[in-house]
Request: fold
Amino acid sequence: MDQNFWLILLAIIGGAIRVSTPFLFVSLGECITEKSGRINLGHEGSMIMGAMVGYGVSLFTGSAWLGILAAGCIGSLFGLFHGWICGKKGVNDIAMGIALIMLGTGLAFFFGKSLIKPTAPRLDDFSLAWWSSVPQITQAFRINWLFILGIILAVVLHYGFKYSRWGMIVRVAGENEEAGLALGYNVNKIRTISSALGTFLSGIGGAYLSLYYPGSWNEGLSSGQGLMAVALVIFARWKPMQCFVASLLFGGAGALGPALQGAGFSYGYYLFNATPYILTLIIIITSSSKKESGVAPAELEI
Amino acid sequence: MYKNIFYCLSVFILLVASSCGSSTSTEVAGSDSVGNLSIGFVYIGSKSDYGYNQAHSEGAAALKNLSGVTVYEEENVPETMDAQKTMESMINMDKSTLIFPTSFGYFDPHALEMAKKYPDVTFLHCGGLYDKSKHPGNVGSYFGYIDEAVYLSGIVAASTSKTKKLGYIAAKPIPQVLRNINAFALGAQSVDPSVTVTVVFTGDWFLPVKEAEAANSLADQGVDVITGHVDSPKVLIETAEKRGIYSVGYHTDQTPLAPKGFLTGAMWNWPKVYTDFVNNYKAGKSLSGLHRGGLKEGIVMLAPYGPAVSEAAKAKAEAIKAEFMSDKGHTIFKGPLVSSTGKQILKAGEELKQQDPILESMDYLVKGVNGSIPAL
Reply:
């Protein structure tokens, strides 16, 4: 029992590290987009396109990192498209995002058919647990450079939005379009660039799925993770550092179901599999307060 | 203003259309001419999924070699009205006279409706649901006792395992899945009664991330052979290989996914089954009825052994396989059989033959399996 407790805890930590990275990238991407005053629900589409293109490029060039880059580029095309269409008057960004989910999954399934069978070079990983020789511990702390990159990005965005000139320009676009226009900025352009940057990140998040964990291209690989990550941004109150914490929490909660069953606690696994969603509900309810109601970018049409 | 709404709407419609276009109908061989036999295959998923659908499409591919046969396939067809539309267009456009709706949920009402509407077309459904008293005469169904091959892979798994802990990753606790888990455990326990099988239910047929998590946490618990019953076992076999432990396949041969750790696996032998069907059809025999069988009838088989399997283990598995192939057969579910909760299922001396319908409503896990089935 005692040993089982530690093993389950380790599995949750390991799961948090393994599963969180795509959530982190997509939520940071959506954070940038929403800070600029626009919602892009289409990250699921750019993510699965990124997964497919990343896998394909890695297969043909032999370099997984080139695959990551290509995934980001194809992702940013989706953002540019979203930004361009939504820049037109009267276009609803939410409907457009849903259309992009369908476009992305449709295209990825269509062009990804021949990529299901071959095995592409994957990303390497290394263990942070140099201090341990227990295989379970070294395995739980195996991480990938993308994970570290994600943490750095969260920190950079945190300070960037607060102190940098560019961060403030994005925030002006998101808080008050009129003010941005009065200052002489092209708000539309800012939002389009933010969307493109956002989907660049979600493309990379998708490539993490196909090139690292679980590490193969398959239809239904993302199975709704892109949408969950968008919800995660609201949960993280549009704060990049909190996006990181929220991603870890979601990853860990997702690992709970399999870990408990693996250790022999098999009762109510449907409930444990639902932990991430229950967690979201609880935290949203407990964290919602009147004081914080003004935290969402004012230009968002939620 | 309205112009823009129209613009957005038309883009939306275009996108929806483009995403629907992902399920494509492909012609596999030959051209359609008079006197040709056209056969339609409908799949619920991708035909290159290293799993259920790939097994069927390998069967369809075998028909390409027959002269005078044209095969039409459509993948990613959901178990909705879409299934009927697909079958209907195969009949009207491709002049198919033999249809294989391969997914379980295609049968009722979709294949049955089509069978009533097109009495000259034969429908062969994979799932064993045909009932002569209720269903039309141009319908047949077929299914295999794959638990025989799963039992054999349990023998191989237990003979290879060092920790004597096996892992089973399953989608949902439905009778067919439980039967496979139990057959795997009983096969393993026939080698060493102390072997345990830990089950992880993921909750759905295709959840790659959850399957990988399940494989990882089983490996952390000291499990050194992993198998599963999900639509595509690709991820769990690759994860097991990454963790340096053994894996046992399901549905189709997954040797290329794990050259080191793949032991063997239970797989369907659809190429043989489909070739037989088509030859009988051409000979004018009725295909209506229920076609079932196991290793002996050649409907299921064992995947090739991997390099980690010892000669002794192979000999054990081959000996039992020979029993399955013999006229006497080999019984998997025989007394004394106790469930994981301690309930007696079969008394000593009692046994359930493979054809026994009681086996198709299995709602227990046998002793030695760590896992539980939620009360439904």
User: Anything to note?
Assistant: The first helix of chain B runs from residue 2 to 20. The longest strand of chain B covers residues 262-268. Chain B has ten helices and 18 strands. Chain B touches chain A through 57 residues (CB under 8 Å).
